[in-house]
Amino acid sequence: MTKMSAEKNYTPLAMEDILDAVQNLEGIATKTPLLESLTLSDKYDARVFLKREDLQVVRSYKIRGAYNIISALSEDQKANGVVCASAGNHSQGVAYACQLLGIKGTIFMPVPTPAQKVNQTKRYGKEFIDIVLHGDTFDDAYAEAKKFEQQHQAAFIHPFDDPKGMAGQATAGVEILNDAENGPLGSIDYLLLPIGGGGFAAGVASYIRAKSPNTKIIGIEPAGAPAMKKSIEAGHHLTLGQIDNFVDGAAVKAVGKTTFEICRDMLDDIITVPEGKICSTILSLYNQEAIVAEPAGALSITALDLIADDIKGKKVVCVLSGGNNDITRMEEIKERSLLYEGYKHYFVVNFSQRAGALREFLAHVLGPQDDIAHFEYSKKTSRQRGPAVIGIELANKDDLKGLLERMEKYNYQCEYLNEKPDLLRYLI
Question: Catalytic positions, please?
Fold first, then answer.
C-alpha cells in the first residue's frame, strides 16, 4: 500500500479544536470501549480490536459531530433553528442534540431510509424536530434541505463537510489512542475507518496521523458507492452517477470537498468491499459476537479479509461505526450474503410441455440436501407449460457445476440470473 499524497490546499484540523471538542462532548457522547475480538484475532492471526461506536447513546458516532456543531451556533442562529439531510445516523445525532439544547430542527431523509432509523430519529428529537422524507438518495434529501435553509434562514448542519463536525468526530480518535496506549494494545499498526462522506475518516485520521505517525490508516467504502476512492484516483473531487444505496449510512454520490482533501493527504489507502460481503460480516458478527451492526458499521471489519496477509502478527483497530439496523432488513441481508457466498442461485427454467417435468426436476436435478428457496411461474395461465423463476439454495456452494450439468443432462433450458443483477432485482 502506498500513502496518498497531494499538495495541501485546505486548512488542516487544529489539535486545539479537537481537544476543545473533547471537553465540549464531556457527558454528551459516550466514551465507547476499545475491545479485543478474540474471534477475529484468532481468524487473522493478529490482535484485532473494535472501537464500539455502536454503543453510543444514538448507536453511532454521529452525535460527536452534530452536537459539536450545533452547540457552537450563535444565539440568533439557534433561534432560527437548524436543518440537515441524512440517511439515518446523522439525523439521529442532530435530533438528539436539538433535544438536549432545546433547538428546533428539520430533518430531511431519503424515502428508502429504514423505518427503524426514521422512528429512532423521532424518538431522540421528540417535539423539537420535524422529519421530511424526500427523494431516493441522500443527495436528493440534501438538495431539498439546502432549499429549506435558504427559505427559512435555518443553520445547515452538514453531515460530514464541516470543520467543527470533523473535530467532533475526531474525539473518537482521541479515545482510541488513549485506550490503546494505556491498555493491552499499546501502539496501533493498522487503523481501519469507514468512509461515507468522509467526515469521520478525515477527523480521526487527522488526529492519529499527528499523534501516531507510524499507524497505517485505511479507509473503507462500499463497492457500490466508492465516491472517495474514485475522486482520489481521478485527482479531483467528483460526483458519481448511479450508486447502490444498500449501505445507507455510507452511500453518497459525492464526498465532502474538504474531507476529500484531508483524506487524500491523510489516508494510506482506500479499500472497497462488496455489499454481499458486508452482509456476511453482519451475520457473522451477530452469530459469533452477539453484535448488531448496520451495513455501514460493518465496513471496516469486512475489509480485514482483503488485507489478511498484511495484518498477520499486527495490532489492528476497526471502527464499528453504527448499530442502527432494522430487523426487517435481515431477510435482504441474508439473501445478499447467500448470493455473494455462492450458496443461492436463481434461474429462469423452461419446462418441457409434458407431464411430470417439474417432478423430474425435483427428483433428479436438485442435490439431496439442496432446497428450492423460490419458485414462481412467469405465466398466470397454462403455468405448467411456461418458464418459471427458481431460486436454489445449495448445501455445498461448490456443487453449482454439478447442478448445471444435471440440468443439461435432463434437457432443462435455463437462463442464469445471478450474473444479471438488474434482471434479478426486477424478477425477485
Answer: 62, 321
SS3 222: strand
* Eight-state DSSP code of residue 342: T
Q: How far apart are CA 96 and CA 128, in angstroms?
A: 9
410 in helix, strand or coil?
A: coil
| Predicted TM-score (pTM) of this structure | 0.90
pLDDT in tens, 222-245: 999 999 999 999 999 999 998 998
If we measure between CA atoms, which residue out of 314, 317, 320, 311 comes closest to residue 290? 320
Among candidate residues 188, 184, 297, 207, the one with its CA nearest the CA of residue 247: 297
Q: What is the rounded CA–CA span in Å between residue 275 and residue 178?
A: 32
The alpha carbon of 18 is separated from its chain's Cα centroid by a whole number of angstroms, namely 25
**Which one, of 124, 127, 141, 162, lies nearest residue 84 by Cα?**
141
Q: How many CB atoms lie within 10 A of CB 274?
A: 15
* Structural domains in the chain, sorted by start: 25-61+163-332 (3.40.50.1100), 63-156 (3.40.50.1100), 342-427 (3.30.70.260)
* Secondary structure class of 119 (helix, strand, coil): helix
Can you tell me whether residue 258 is helix, strand or coil? helix
User: How far is residue 247 CA from its own chain's centroid?
Assistant: 4
